[in-house]
UniProtKB/TrEMBL annotation:
It comes from Isoptericola halotolerans. Keywords: Membrane, Transmembrane, Transmembrane helix. The chain crosses the membrane at residues 34-56. Residues 1-30 are annotated as: Disordered. This is Uncharacterized protein.
């Protein structure tokens, strides 16, 4: 049984295109900028949660007590 038809022949394959964006491509993205935006957003969420958490907890407790009558 011959498997000659399964032989790998690199000359028959087209080269793969380079899919990496050029360094000066405006669509390339700004990874450090996005990291900074993400960290700042997380910081704001933590700060707001620290400030508003007790107030929201109190409001929730009052609402539950008014519904349950306790």
């Amino acid at each position: 049984m011959s498997h000659d038809h399964l032989a790998h022949r690199p000359q028959d394959e087209a080269p793969l295109p380079d899919r990496r964006p050029a360094a000066d491509d405006p669509e390339r993205g700004d990874v450090p900028g996005w990291v900074l935006v993400t960290l700042m957003t997380a910081g704001l969420v933590v700060a707001l949660w620290a400030l508003a958490g007790p107030l929201l907890e109190g409001a929730f407790t009052d609402a539950i007590q008014s519904v349950t009558g306790r």
